[in-house]
């Protein structure tokens, strides 16, 4: 049996005219659970996601990222090694800069 897990993500970015770089201002995301799973295994009653929920979110993000990377390479849009280096640089940059933004867990709508 295949069970679909979805992750809905919205980024709030600041864009300046004539400047290629954008700045992340906020991010909202929520794990959308299928009805056949126990919600309490993924979402705490009084707070954000459980370890299983966090792992599921991370897995969805990683697999989507890998699929995007392979697709871009296969379509000739972006060399996979160059793309992967960019992803790593963005992760490093984002890890440092994320404190500037706001993260929210919209777990009540899942």
Tell me about this structure.
The chain is of the alpha+beta class and 110 residues long. The protein has one domain. 38% of the residues lie in helices and 23% in strands. The chain contains 2 helices and 3 strands, in the order E-E-H-H-E. It has helices spanning 51-74, 80-97; strands at residues 6-15, 22-32, 102-105. It has a 3-stranded mixed sheet with strand order 1-2-3, with helices on one face. The chain is globular and about 45 Å long. The chain starts with 5 loop residues before the first strand and ends in a 5-residue tail after the last strand. The mean pLDDT is 85.
Number of domains: 1
* Contiguous uncertain segments of 5+ residues: none
**Main sheet overview:** 3 strands, mixed
Dominant shape: globular
First and last CA, distance: 21 Å
Give the SSE order as H and E letters. EEHHE
* Beta-strand fraction estimate: 15-25%
Write down how many β-strands occur, each being a DSSP E stretch of 2 or more residues.
3
Compute the CA-based radius of gyration: 16 Å
Specify the helix fraction band.
25-40%
**What is the strand arrangement across the widest sheet?**
1-2-3
Structural class by helix and strand composition: alpha+beta
Specify the number of helices. Answer: 2
Mean pLDDT: 85
């Amino acid at each position: 049996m295949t069970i679909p897990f979805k992750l809905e993500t919205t980024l709030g970015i600041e864009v300046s005219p004539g400047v290629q770089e954008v700045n992340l201002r906020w991010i909202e995301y929520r794990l959308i659970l299928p009805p056949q799973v126990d919600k309490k295994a993924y979402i705490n009653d009084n707070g954000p996601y459980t370890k299983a929920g966090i792992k599921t979110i991370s897995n969805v993000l990683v697999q989507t990222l890998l699929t995007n990377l392979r697709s871009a390479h296969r379509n000739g849009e972006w060399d996979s090694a160059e793309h992967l280096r960019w992803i790593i640089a963005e992760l490093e940059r984002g890890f440092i800069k994320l404190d500037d933004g706001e993260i929210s867990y919209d777990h009540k709508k899942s």
